[in-house]
Amino acid sequence: MNIEKIAVISYHTPHRKTQDVLCQLKAKGYTEVTVFALPFVQRPNPFAPIYQHRPSKAMEVEPEVFCNRFGYGFEPTTVDTLHQQLDDFKANFVLIAGAGLLPDALVEAYRMINTHPGFLPFTRGLDSLKWAIHKGVEIGITTHFVDTEADAGFLIEQRHIPLYTNDTFHSVANRQYEIEIEMLVDSIALIPQLSHFPSLSSTEFEATRRMPKAVEAQLMTDFEHYKTRFAK
The pTM is what? Predict the structure, then answer.
């Protein structure tokens, strides 16, 4: 039985990634888990994608109920109270399952673990999968300790995502997401085995923004070219 104390930072709303992370934690026998739920604010999205590549549908179960059914703790929080709550909880590991930008003081106080759906530092920023395909950069995932620099921090693990000749864009996106969840949870067992966490800070690779529609419109063509280069 695993007795590590694990804090999971998420949103105070049904959230797919958080639900998947909690399912894996439960399956792997972690019992001392508490979700710290930040307020969720639904904002209009002017960048509605042409091709949706991240799972968006969560089970319609309130996060507190979801945690209770797993025997996990649940605490509503805010960016102003989270620091004290984490101090009181005394977590061995802090996983980020969902959060916006967190205050620098909070990030510097804890070794927070994040998974980025790209191979850092080459694919920093938003829409990393799409930009990797467009730029011809291998698709990957990076688990890292976060710091005050976006999509940087210190490396825990990186994996390339395998690509096959019969893949579609969405089969690759689903595979990347599944491995992302797996790597976040696996980091709990992996970190104690490591002694060196290289810096991912870089000024060479600029963080991307949401992919413009004119570029995204060509994504399926880009993907077919990408497959001819990288598929096994």
Answer: 0.94
Nearest to 169 by CA among 123, 220, 98: 220
> What element of type H or E holds 30?
strand 30-38
Query: Does the domain at residues 2-230 carry the CATH identifier 3.40.50.12230?
Result: yes
pLDDT reported for residue 219: 97
Up-side HSE of residue 33: CA atoms within 13 Å toward CB?
A: 32
User: Rounded to an integer, what distance in angstroms lies between the CA atom of residue 178 and that of residue 47?
Assistant: 24
From residue 14, give the alpha-carbon distance in Å to each of 46, 59, 71, 151. Answer: 22, 7, 17, 25
Nearest by Cα to 124 from 110, 112, 137: 137
Give the mean pLDDT of 33-47. Answer: 83
Rounded Cα–Cα distance for residues 23 and 109 (Å): 27
- β-strands 154-160, 93-96: how paired? unpaired
Render pLDDT for 14-28 as a digit per residue (tens, 0 to 9).
999 999 999 999 999
Residue-wise pLDDT for 167-221, tens only, equals 999 999 999 999 999 999 999 999 999 999 999 988 888 889 999 999 999 999 9
Whole-number Cα distances in Å, 184 to 62, 148, 190, 216, 218: 22, 19, 10, 28, 31
State how far the Cα of 64 lies from the Cα of 72, in Å rounded to an integer. 9
- Return the residue matching tokens 């026998």: 29
- Best CA proximity match to 148, nearest among 98, 200, 184: 200
Q: Where are the alpha helices (DSSP H) in the chain?
A: 16-27, 63-70, 82-89, 104-109, 128-135, 169-190, 213-216, 219-230
